Amino acid sequence: MSDITNRPRRLRRSETLRSLVREARLAREDFILPLFVCAGSGVRREVSSMPGVFNLSVDEAMREASNAFELGLRAVILFGLPEAKDEIASGAYAEDGIVQQAARAVKRSVPEMLVIADTCLCEYTSHGHCGVVRRGEVLNDESLELIARTAVSQAQAGADIVAPSAMMDGQVGAIREALDNEGFDQIAIMSYAVKYASAFYGPFREAADSAPSFGDRRAYQMDAANAREAMREAELDYTEGADILMVKPATAYLDILKMVRDRFDLPMAAYHVSGEYAMIKAAAERGWIDERRVMLETLTCIKRAGADMIITYYAQEAVRAINQS
Ligand code: PBG
Fold this sequence. Notes:
Blueprint: H1 15-20, E1 31-38, E2 44-47, E3 50-57, H2 58-71, E4 75-81, H3 90-93, H4 98-109, E5 114-119, E6 132-134, E7 137-139, H5 140-156, E8 161-164, H6 171-181, E9 188-195, H7 202-207, H8 228-240, E10 244-248, H9 254-263, E11 268-272, H10 274-285, H11 291-304, E12 309-312, H12 315-324
Parallel strand pairs: 1-3, 1-4, 1-12, 4-5, 5-8, 8-9, 9-10, 10-11, 11-12
Antiparallel strand pairs: 2-3, 6-7
Bound molecules: ligand PBG.
The site of ligand PBG has 12 residues, from helix 7.
């Protein structure tokens, strides 16, 4: 007789057993689908570095959202590609801005779809930075006013949640105050609380045409080497009234995700960003990895690390895979 009493393998003998003891599970409600909305009609332009992701005109975005709803998805996050950009990001808070139009259209056609609006200025500024620039510097407090104005106009257009991603100090508090003053105390803030200055955003900047024309974002987004600072960022947003905390990117930052999860009791979002998506796609195109399995493994591990919800360009494919299993 063997003297091994504990045999973890007993619970791995069949898929039924494995499924019984599984700790983290993906559900269709977990996913948030990013949509890049542009001017025009009937536009469906694939982003070259992100196969399967498109720039969509408002009518097409509406269609994409209702197809996603049919599939089982319940949330989208909107990004805008305005026709014109300027120094003060007018397109971000225009009543007929591209995200505002898309929010109205999605809410009209699929009222139960949650509409999250990314609240930032970089897609709308001529220089591509996330705030107001003077003498080569991104000014914090001057930017807050425009960011808060953007959030209010997104709420007016029907967004259920605003998601500030500019990494300006005090942005959550400024948005909360502005929303409350305008009667939008029920609109939630999903804060990109811990957002790193990451090379994994490369393909997004093509998708959203938002690359900075000079310098980079390291004077406002976080240094990849820092974890304690992430706790401080999360704490500030918690105190300022964030309803949901986000960590971004996801896979290279699972330790951060876990730390934020252990420390705060707010719902947690993870952003599986453009570069993370593009790397899986590219390797799969070469036949080097099994795309479906790598996708599911990646998303499952993001949940295991502590995310309640995941923003991912794989949202539809993940739900399709879940629906089949
Ligand atoms: C806007 C914003 C960015 C992303 C989400 N919101 C780009 C950036 O900070 O440069 C990146 C998302 C992705 O890479 O998928 N500030």
